[in-house]
Amino acid sequence: MSLRAYRQAAGRAEAPREGEYRLFGQVTRALMQAADLSPDDIKGRIDALDWNRRLWSPLASDCSDPANQLPVPLRAQIISLSLWVSRHTSAVIRQEEEIEPLIDINRIMMSGLSGGAEAA
Length: 120
Description:
The protein has five helices and no strands. By secondary structure, the protein is mainly α. Helix 2 runs antiparallel to helix 5.
């Protein structure tokens, strides 16, 4: 099955929120595995770090769209988090910061997507 066909089938089978939750779960799992690697193993960590950055960037773009249905304060918070994720990721790559805060932020987003009380 082609990637396009898979995406179309997945899009029909799950709500957008469920898809976002699933994607955050996959990326967060990759970050957790990367966190177990030596900080010197940048090549081993970079895929997960880059994937996480590529997850957050379109979220910020989507939130900047005036047609976005989310409340404006929530959209601003997501954009702000996306900028922080990008900066923190660069610092992790430079070995100036740890990877765990990225995992924590993703878990908070997952809680919000699942309707968890922690998101409030």
